[in-house]
Amino acid sequence: MKELNLPAYSVKFKSGEDGKALIFDEIRKKYVVLTPEEWVRQHFVNYLVTEKSYPRGLVAVEVMFKMNKLIRRADILIYNKKGEPVLIVECKAPKVKISAAVFDQIVAYNIKFRLKYIVVTNGLQHYACSTDLETGEWSFLDAIPDYEALILGI
């Protein structure tokens, strides 16, 4: 798999019955098919937990939700200690350019969640934004906030 702009970590792999490569998801506690997007998702979760002090128990992966009568999945949702979502992350494969269309997708998802923070990553580039829930406008942050700053709304 492609090297990412994220810290390396000790990844667990195995081969599935169909011969597909699997990677262990520490959040879901199971092996999942290793796709380029999954490679990014697993590394980004590890980054949030180890580098940004996000509590592992407050991280959810592939969260299903309904939007316009369709089932969608949020790649990563971060919760506060009350169990309320506070940040949504959209992960793309490294070859996918972070474009306006990618932002449109996460902004559309955020209409459902109404979260102050959104993040988009392809494993090479990472963009964090703060949203104004009243106006719907968002602005780029200089860095991905650590968990404490996120909860305090800094």
Features:
3 helices; 154 residues; 9 strands; 23% helix; six-stranded mixed sheet; tt1808, chain A; alpha+beta; three-stranded antiparallel sheet
Strand and helix layout:
Layout: E1 13-15, E2 21-25, E3 30-33, H1 36-50, E4 59-67, E5 70-79, E6 85-91, H2 100-113, E7 117-121, E8 126-131, E9 138-140, H3 147-152
Parallel strand pairs: 6-7
Antiparallel strand pairs: 1-2, 2-3, 4-5, 5-6, 7-8, 8-9
What's the short story on this structure?
By secondary structure, the chain is α+β, with helices and mostly antiparallel strands.
Q: Could you walk me through the main structural features you see in this protein, from its secondary elements to its overall organization?
A:
With 154 residues, this protein is an alpha+beta fold. The chain has a single domain (36-152), classed as tt1808, chain A (Alpha-Beta Complex). The chain has helices at residues 36-50, 100-113, 147-152, and strands spanning 13-15, 21-25, 30-33, 59-67, 70-79, 85-91, 117-121, 126-131, 138-140. Strands 4-5-6-7-8-9 form a six-stranded mixed sheet, sandwiched between helices. The protein has a three-stranded antiparallel sheet with strand order 1-2-3, covered by helices on one side. The chain is globular and about 50 Å long. The termini are far apart. The mean pLDDT is 93.
